[in-house]
Amino acid sequence: MAINFDFDPVEQAMADSVAAFCHDRLDAELLRAAAEEFPLPLWKDMAELGILELACPDSGGSASALCAVSEQLGRAAFPGPLAACVLGAAVLDEKKRAGIIAGDELVSLAEPPLLPWGPLATHFLVVKDGVVLRADTPTDMQTSSTLGGEPWGRAAIEANAALADSDRGLGLYLLTLAAWQAAAGRRLVELAAEHASTRQQFGRAIASFQAVAHPLADSVIQLDASAALARSAAFALDTGASDAMVALLRARASADRAAVAAAQACHQVFGALGVSLEGPVFNYSRRMLQAASLPPNPGWTMRRLAEAAGLPPTSLADAAG
Amino acid sequence: MEFAWSKDDQEFRKDLVAFLESELPDDWQEISREGPGSDAQAEFSLGFCAALAERGWLTPHWPTEYGGNAAPSWSHAVLGEELWSRGEPRGPQYMNVNWIGPTIMEHGSDEQKALHLPAISEGRVLWCQGFSEPEAGSDLVALRTSAIADGDDYIINGSKIWTSYANHADYCFLLVRSDPESSRHHGLSVILLPMDSEGIEIREIPSVVGKRYFHELFFTDVRVPRSCLLGEEGEGWKVVSYSLQYERVGAPRYARATVTLDRLAELARQKGLLDDPTVAEKLGRARAACEAARVLSYRVIDQRAHGLPPSADTNVARIAGTRVDKLVGDLALELTGSSGLEAGTFANANFKLAMTAGVAVGATEVQLNLVASRMLGLPRE
Description:
The complex is a heterodimer.
Chain A: H1 9-25, H2 28-34, H3 40-47, H4 63-75, H5 82-91, H6 94-101, E1 106-110, E2 114-116, E3 121-128, E4 131-135, E5 142-144, E6 152-154, E7 159-162, H7 166-198, E8 200-201, E9 204-205, H8 210-238, H9 244-270, H10 281-292, H11 298-308
Parallel strand pairs in A: 1-3
Antiparallel strand pairs in A: 2-6, 3-4, 4-7, 5-6, 8-9
Helix pairs in contact in A: 1-4, 4-7, 4-8, 5-6, 5-7, 7-8, 7-9, 7-10, 8-9, 9-10, 9-11
Chain B: H1 7-23, H2 28-31, H3 39-54, H4 74-84, H5 93-107, H6 110-121, E1 127-130, E2 146-150, E3 153-161, E4 171-177, E5 188-194, E6 200-205, E7 214-225, E8 229-230, H7 236-250, H8 253-270, H9 277-305, H10 313-336, H11 346-355, H12 364-376
Parallel strand pairs in B: 1-4
Antiparallel strand pairs in B: 2-3, 3-7, 4-5, 5-8, 6-7
Helix pairs in contact in B: 1-4, 4-8, 5-6, 5-7, 8-9, 8-10, 9-10, 10-11, 10-12
């Protein structure tokens, strides 16, 4: 056996069909509009490709396949609670997950009292100290808007039942986030590179200035590292490696960090166009920032990674559980 | 050497703080939520600046003949700090006081001074700045908007972009090419353009930063009298260089960042995060950067107070200020987590402010080049 980064032909074929779907259905205008009103028909059509079904325990779907399709969705900055719905499809019972994998029902993974996608969600989950719990649908939900243009809710939420398959579900959730983030970041850097190659100032393309080119190159290094960590973590999950969860946490933490840094680098390259709602960059960066804010929080993740590396556990209070 | 505030400055700050506490309404956060370009904040600024002006506090450091109190230039720094740390209730008018007024004072005719300076000093006029164009951003002197002399008038054609406050502005401080045969720094002029002139079209560019924050301006055969020319025809670059030195240190961003840091430290304490040495370290580091930006800004004001010519120290201060914005914006997001992305939260406001910090008033890359060439004598790329 040799190390091989390629997806197998079935996984690759699935990734190709998702790429074609995104190419046909998503453009900058739709991404912008999706921040005003979430495109449920698009979401349903995406689900019908069988993407969320990959996460079901009895579907025969692999983590590698999920990684492959998440990369393509990330490249397109595909909107919506993808990772939370992957988690729901993995941990909820057959009856509940049917609506999720069909794209009819959405899942909110809470960061109490915040409920990402809460106003649109049917199912509510909480992750506490690495364990996924089910929660009742909250009452009296306040709605709030976010930088990412995502409809969020705010309400007290009670976790009431631990779920079977929590570890596998959380693993797939982290994998989806990591692969999506790294690929979204990579595409954003490509957009910034295209802009820098055509934008002329001082009589030359701004990409010919190292001060412009190097931050983009640095972003590629970090993002490619994250993408590679995500693929190897998917493999670890599929092969039942004992350190799979650590690999997944590492991939997600790495991807978030790389994506946020890349977003900032790309904003700088695009100048004021970077913060325009009409420009191409904010469609990506707003969703990348939002994805980086999803639970579990970076502090908890870093402590888990430090412990896994053999460092003594800290006595610090865990702020967000 | 002296690093303490004078007694007068201390008293002024005390009086100013008392005034602000009584003058800023309870719903000031709500008024300022959508930024200085919003209708709410622009309107508020007119009443607020008039109240400041009544006390002689809008332009205290200006000569009395232009509506000032001839106070030391440090009173302007005190004003800037206190107002920025409260979210700049002067709204768009901070530009008038910071650099538009001083530039008119330096380069304007008697007629222009009489027309514009009292209006600025009394807080009853809004300005915007017409510098950037679609093809002339960091490379400002690539600009193409023209003002061609025609008898006693100029006829203006072209467009400007990223213009803040254009929708509310009474005047635009407009940089144009008055000699169509010229290139680069030559043949530029500044026009003080009344925004109610015929032939101006304004389009908003919606942005994440705030409502009506950016606009595109289109000029089609806009005719203005020659009396709108500021300084000599063809000497526009000299005029604008003077303006930029004021603009780059005009907004004490460190003052706002410092207040935000205090709030973040309190938040971290409430969440029990201060026991985490990495959090404490980041707060400490950001605070040190705020202090550094503050003293670097003071260094520039000190040089100005001594009548020294502008230097690359201005760029150093500006870069330090924008770095602080970034540090604090990132830290706000990190410490508040998901809620930092919710619209209307203070962390969100600071993060959005930080998004443009490295671009506004000259991209950081350009400022670094100026530091490299002027302070270190390094060759241009």
